[in-house]
Structure formats: structure tokens, C-alpha cells
Amino acid sequence: MSENRRPIKSRSNRFIVAISGMLARSAVTPNQISSASVIFAALGAIALLRIDSPWAMIVAIAGIQLRLLCNVIDGLVAVEGGKKSVVGALYNEFPDRLADSLLLAAAGYASGVPSLGWASALLAALTAYVRVFGGAVGLEQRFIGPMAKQHRMALLTLACVATAAETLLHRHHVCLLIALSIIAAGSAVTCITRTRAIVRDLQEANTSSGATHA
After folding, report:
1. What does pTM read for this prediction?
2. Can you tell me the distance from the alpha carbon of 200 to that of 143, in angstroms, rounded to the nearest whole number?
3. Would you tell me how many other CB atoms lie within 10 Å of the CB of residue 187?
4. Hey, is 102 helix, strand or coil?
5. Please, how many CA atoms are within 13 Å of residue 200, restricted to the half-sphere of its CB?
6. Rounded CA separation 175/110 (Å)
7. pLDDT digits (tens, 9 = 90+) for 125-182
8. Which residue segments constitute the domains of the chain, with CATH numbers given?
9. CA 166 distance to own-chain centroid
């Protein structure tokens, strides 16, 4: 596995492997799959705005999960399917940032606190920036949490389930707001955690280099 590739257990899932194999044999490209993740995220974001509808929450959950599925399959089709492209690295990152922003910002508006949604989206983007910066200075990219992409989306999915339950039970909607608060705080901690890892790796690399030349 590439040191700059996110470790995902679901890559070995038979269903996902089967879909990836089928797409690898088709005319569909990994970049198209990456772009599709933004479309699914947009559909999920639109559904999130209908916070009073349990059906809309189901659509939002589907949008989130299909977005994640695309994020897994695009890499499998590109690497295992032998369909890498020269712009693959760009498509591997940019659609993710757009998808995160769409879903988190929409969740902010749905919960009645747009600023929290945008803050969560910004901090989510910063976690990726710190990770990629580590790669830019020649280090292994760190996908550590506590609020990496899969954790953010898992929490947002649970919040959608809880929001649907709140609607059915005629309760005031607070779960989405709580989830966004956790995502924002967790993403901030993740930025710190990854930055500290970069500093540690740079110091270790410098020490090793000094020992080599001693």
C-alpha cells in the first residue's frame, strides 16, 4: 500500500471489490467516480436542509454513504484496476474537500447555526491541509484522528439517524448541533495531533540524518 494512501479496511470487502472490478473493466474512470462523490454529497446536503423530514434524513444518510463508497472505489479502480491518471492525485483530494464542505455547511444551516457548519467545514479542510503538507515536506502522510474523514462522516450519519428519531418523537432537534460541535472540536484536535506528528517526524529525520553523517 502506498504510504500516502488512506488505510481503509473496506477495500477488502467482497462487495466493494466486485463493484470496483466491474467498473475497472468498464469505460468509467477513477476521476469520474471521484467527481460522482461530490454529486452524492450535494444530494445529501440538500436533504439535510429538510431537517423535519425523516425521509430526507434517510436520503442524507444515503448521500453520505455513497460519497464514502465512491472514495473507496475510485482508489481501487485507479490502483488495482490499473487506471491511474496524471491528474489522479488532484481528483483524489479536491472532490473530498468539496464533499465535506457541502455536507458540513448544510448541516450547519439545518441545525440553525450556519457559522458552526462553516467552521466545521474549514477545520475539516485544515485536517487535510496538514496531512498533505506533511507529504509536501517528504514525510509519510498521517491519516490519524481523532476526527479524520471517516469519523466525521460516521458521526454525521449517526446524527441524521438521531434527527429522524427526534422528528418522529416530536422532540426538539439538537443531535445535529451536538454532532457538528464534536466534529469541529475533534477536527481542531486532529489538526494539532497531525501537526505534532509532522514536527516529531521532522525531528527524527534530522536526528537520523545527523547520525548517518557523523
Report:
1. 0.90
2. 15
3. 29
4. helix
5. 9
6. 11
7. 999 999 999 999 999 998 999 999 999 999 999 999 999 999 999 999 999 999 999 9
8. 9-212 (1.20.120.1760)
9. 26
